[in-house]
Amino acid sequence: MKVVKLAYYDEFHCIGSECKDSCCKYWKICLFKNEYLYYQKMDCSPKLRSVIDTAFRQLRENEIYYAEMRLRENGDCPFLDNDSLCMIQKESGEDALSYTCNTFPRQNGRVGENTIRQYCTATCCHVTELLMNHPEGLAVVEEEYDGKNKYINNGLFSSPAITKQWKGFAFYWQLLNAQIDILQNRAFSISERMLILGYFCQKADEYINNNTPYKIPSLANMLLDKELCKKIADSLRPSQSDDSAAVKSMNILIMMNSRAQIFSSAHPKKLFSQVMDRLDCTFEEKDAQTAVNFSAAEYKKLCKVFRQIENERTYIIENLLVNLVFSNDPQQGVWNNYFILAVFYNTLKICAPVFLSENYDDKELAAALTYAVKMVINTHLAEKGTLNDFVEKHTHTLPYAAFLIC
Q1: Alpha-carbon distance 318 to 237, whole Å?
Q2: Which residues in 372-392 are b (16+ Cβ under 10 Å) and which e?
Q3: Sheet holding 106-111, edge to edge
Q4: What is the CA radius of gyration of the chain?
Q5: Which of 70, 49, 50 is closest to 59 using CA atoms?
Q6: Could you read off the pLDDT of 189-212 as tens digits, one per residue?
């Protein structure tokens, strides 16, 4: 069996109390039945036993998980000790952790029968720090599976399997590599790369839906032509004023904020609220419709900060986008994935600067970028909310995606 992964994957290790946004806060961890029963019978200290006895809530109607952790009032995991380390791991070692706690932010998924895809999600601050440590870009490596991962050996994977039943399966790797090549083409700006990627994804999606995925490799080869790519990017760049761009970008963010307040946990709600407050967003009813007001000056200020980061350290945004593309499930639609990527980019450019102080350092920048990632990835607001809005209105188009990017 082979493993295909982003090379930094093996560099990751949990930094525990040094993390600026611990995954032991705000996140309800679900357990399998065998894990729940293990903790109930666990040989441990009286201190740990007293926590275990009240730490879990059984899930009566969940087909996958048996129980979930009860968070403290401040959002902390019940096992988070005063030194910001896990009581279970300190007392019984890493192997005593639940599957989620043991593996996060690492993700494993099958591609067909003989390949495993591995990556880390940038909803962890230290992963974002690792992405920031690779100015040369992210390499994809292939190696033989060493047989040491107990979860993989037991058939337990954290990301969806890409199966042979998917119509584009035979060309999956060409599809993925082409997207990464476009995003890593430093002859173009990030926004230009995103426009070229949109053209590629739209065409590739059409080929797959029309049962002609064999056209994908020739499309990818065609886009190695820099002059052609330049023409594509120029033709797709929208003609819009700064005010028009701000309204379109903010409309999507405000829709995501509305859903976050209803469906999301406390942490994403708090992040969205910080952004809305910074932009002075207010809502008022006019003619049975909700009108939204925001500070255009503040919007432009935030975008300027983001563009400065993007221009001075382009590779950071590049690596975030490549990391997300590598994690995509193309069975959900190549074009749908791209539109979500455009929404993600829109969120990143507005929201990440909100969490930065004037004299920020790299650790603060990594945290700010991670917060913006969480606002999209952890909440599924782009995938299950915003995308559906555009699909219903038939506006999930390349021109609209271009409005969000440029």
Answers
A1: 19
A2: bbbbbbbbebbbebbbeebee
A3: 106-111, 115-120, 2-6, 140-144
A4: 22
A5: 70
A6: 999 999 999 999 999 999 999 999
